[in-house]
Amino acid sequence: MSLKELNDVSYFKLNNEINRPVDGQIPLHKDKEALKAFFEENVEPNTMTFPSVEEKINYLIAQDYLEEAFIQKYSMAFISSLFDYLKAQKFTFKSFMAAYKFYSQYALKNNEGTLYLESFEDRVAFNALYFADGDEKLAMKLADEMIHQRYQPATPSFLNAGRKRRGELVSCFLLQVTDDMNSIGRSINSALQLSRIGGGVGISLSNLREAGAPIKGYEGAASGVVPVMKLFEDSFSYSNQLGQRQGAGVVYLDVFHPDIEMFLSTKKENADEKIRVKTLSLGLTIPDKFYELARNNEEMYLFSPYSVEREYGVPFSYIDITQKYDELVANPNIRKTKILARDLENEISKLQQESGYPYIINIDEANRQNPIDGKIIMSNLCSEILQVQTPSVINDRQEYEVLGTDISCNLGSTNIPNLMSSPDFGESVRAMTRALTYITDSSDIDVVPSIQNGNSLNHTIGLGAMGLHTFFAKNQMSYGSPESIEFTDVYFSLLNYWTLVESNQIAKERKVSFNNFENSAYADGTYFDRYINQPVVPHSEKIKDIFNGIFIPAAEDWSALRDNIQADGLYHQNRLAVAPNGSISYINDTSASIHPITRLIEERQEKKIGKIYYPAPNLSNETLPYYTSAYDMDMRQVIDVYAAAQKHVDQGMSLTLFMRSEIPEGLYEWKTETSKQTTRDLTILRHYAFNQGIKSIYYVRTFTEDEEEIGSNQCESCVI
């Protein structure tokens, strides 16, 4: 019975029995039975076997399943020894969902889709060999990290590494549009190409002149940002990898742009079809000044990008609105309109209730924490990529007169519970940094020169984390408790330290630093002041015990690292970013990203299959009290945990707010008149996040009384 004819199987039924309590207990053993049945009924009878590793690899190359070039960088004796090592680790999936997700979405199948051609160990081996680029020691180290699930490459990387017929290894892209037809046209072409390649695309429209702005002296001629949004939406719908996936994009607009109200209206349920965008995501870049005006219940001015650029000679995104607000208001050459800040704030909250959008980028906070010379103006489809950009100038022949820098995202994730058990935390992180470096070095998106230019100059990567709630539960810590925040603080300071160490080592080996390193806070040493003056170390006995045996850098270690970086530079402009997690977290048998779980038994609708149930990782009588659902949690606790990590993450984090339409009694002290979620609740939480130094907020997900989720994650690109 081939994979195309699997009908009479027992594993779905066994898995579904998890959701039926027996004597008040969750029958977790049913998931183990489902896992066993899945291998017996599905995997084992439908996996092609080979007498030896060499014969397997030769077959996969001959049949155009596997690239030959990366295999030829190693001897077959070494490759066989690596496969033998992986087999000796006796890897097993811990849940039915983990195995099902791997074999349905990641395992290589034959052209007919009737047989599996690789196991988890095989996929790990090909990833390790591919990313090590001929370095046997690194290949063995990466294999060790991945088979013990301490490191997980992003979905595009893990899925495609080594395959002959594959998509790109990168996760997503960021483009900015400047205020001219050439840039709009070129950006639409770029979006088509990037969506074809695979991966979500973020686009900044803040520089575009508003509706009614003049065009070559004609008053009231411009159509504004909404028609351009519709063009991008149609582009993503068309360029969908032959129907295999929906093209995905997000458009960002500055909250002081005159089209802001119409921009938000495009996502309203009752929006006119002429302006409504159905599949495009929305994001706002919000300067500090907006929070001040809203807090003081003042009017706010919206400024014409067209007149701002004419007056200052730079695109609108590169103006510091907070700093120049009063100057812009007083300048008669700047076209402007007035609205009430709180009215706009209320519209933002209403839309977040209705759809989960818009994403929020606290743009001044992102730039305040940014150690790189230049300006961050936008983010990506999952709101965790925050890097400086420079605009391009395109002539009438659609050629680049000035080639700016746009962004591609190369992502991977640490598995917190497993990395904390690593024989050498630092060496693990350094190996992960090397793997991600190979992806950025080998990426060559020549169809979009601004993306190619940004990648070749800046060598950016984004190492993140998953499994934080699982780690808390295993160690009997409540999410958001002081000790959980302390752990998060120390853990992410270690990720920061070791990625800096390895980036410095690579720069020293290659005698290359990222572009404009000399004007960064790394080069002048100021970045390290806070670590030297107040090193991050465990204080409570519990966290001291957890980190026992793991090297914690002291002031002199940070000082030595500063000196090394000032002497030899850094290879990567950016190193850390915490993405959301999708199927990859299931395969890792851990909680997604660093946010709390949503249910003890998660229910997943799997296309033609039906419902699959996934118990919280390591769920037991001991961990049960520490697995509070995000929907039953004060979101300020989640924000506090993210804020502890954000101090050390040079980019951003996909922070999701989880709300109930009926808020549990006593959760928020201001809920005295109604238990229903209101716009005020979301406004208070956004301001709290801003005051805690949070750079970005991803979705607002609302769990309704009829158990529907509004604003659930639609992005499969960077959900590593």
From TrEMBL:
Q: The Ribonucleotide reductase large subunit domain covers which part of the protein? A: 558-580
Q: Would you name any one GO CC term?
A: ribonucleoside-diphosphate reductase complex
**One Pfam family hit:** Ribonuc_red_lgN
A single BP term in Gene Ontology: deoxyribonucleotide biosynthetic process
Q: Could you say which EC number(s) this protein's record lists?
A: 1.17.4.1
Family annotation (PROSITE patterns): RIBORED_LARGE (PS00089)
InterPro entries xrefs: NrdE_NrdA_C, RNR_1b_NrdE, RNR_lg_C, RNR_lsu_N, RNR_N, RNR_R1-su_N, Rrm1
Q: What class of enzyme is it?
A: oxidoreductase
Mind telling me which Gene3D superfamilies this protein's record contains?
Answer: 1.10.1650.20, 3.20.70.20
MF (Gene Ontology): ATP binding; ribonucleoside-diphosphate reductase activity, thioredoxin disulfide as acceptor
Q: Which reaction does it catalyse?
A: a 2'-deoxyribonucleoside 5'-diphosphate + [thioredoxin]-disulfide + H2O = a ribonucleoside 5'-diphosphate + [thioredoxin]-dithiol
Q: Which CDD domains match?
A: RNR_I
- Family recorded in the similarity comment: Belongs to the ribonucleoside diphosphate reductase large chain family.
User: What is this protein identified as?
Assistant: Ribonucleoside-diphosphate reductase
